Amino acid sequence: MIENREPVTKAQELRAFLFLTIVTAPVLAVAVVGGYGFFIWMYQLVTGSLPSG
After folding, report:
1. Residue 51: which residues within 8 A CB-CB, separation 6 or more?
2. If phi over 0 gives left and psi between -120 and 50 gives alpha, with beta otherwise, what is residue 43?
3. Residue 40 near residue 51 (C-beta atoms within 8 A)
4. Where on the phi/psi map is residue 48: left (φ > 0), alpha (ψ -120 to 50), or beta?
5. What is the pLDDT of residues 1-49, one digit of tens each?
6. Is the separation of the CB atoms in 50 and 44 below 8 Å?
């Protein structure tokens, strides 16, 4: 089943790029750092010490 789609315009492509770089990337970075911090916090809560690498 093939659909006839209109080609993506430069404005739509620019809008998608700006959304990804201005909104999605910082949100993802904060989520990763926050998730890692939460993991360390829970690890300390359970074991009573910092993880040693």
Report:
1. 40, 43
2. alpha
3. yes
4. left
5. 677 788 889 999 999 999 999 999 999 999 999 999 999 999 899 988 7
6. yes
Which residue type is seen at 20? L
Cβ distance 53 to 43 under 8 Å?
A: no
Nearest C-alpha neighbor of 52 from the set 31, 36, 43: 43
pTM equals: 0.68
DSSP state of 3: -
Between CA 35 and CA 45, with CA 38 as vertex, the angle to 5 degrees is 155
For the chain, what percentages of helix, strand and coil (3-state, to nearest 5) are there?
Answer: 70, 0, 30
Residue at 27: amino acid letter: V
